[in-house]
Amino acid sequence: MKLEIPDAVADTTGFDDSEMLEFLSVCLYKAKKINGVQGGKILGTSEIEFHGLLEKYGQYVNYGIDDFQEEIDNLTDF
Questions:
Q1: Which Pfam families has this protein been placed in (predicted)?
Q2: Count of domains in the chain?
Q3: Which domain holds residue 50?
């Protein structure tokens, strides 16, 4: 997918191309439309690097009780 944002609109944000892509990725993550792995892929980084980027935009890793329970279940399978 290629997304084009008119320069007149993009200029109002004050973001350069990479910052715009970061912002879009973080917004999609915040809306729970993508996960950290997908966010990293959009930016060409790892999931860990993407999670580190979230702080720049005042966001946190989406990690709830269900995620915690899944990790416990996975550990007990060993």
A1: UPF0175
A2: 1
A3: 12-76
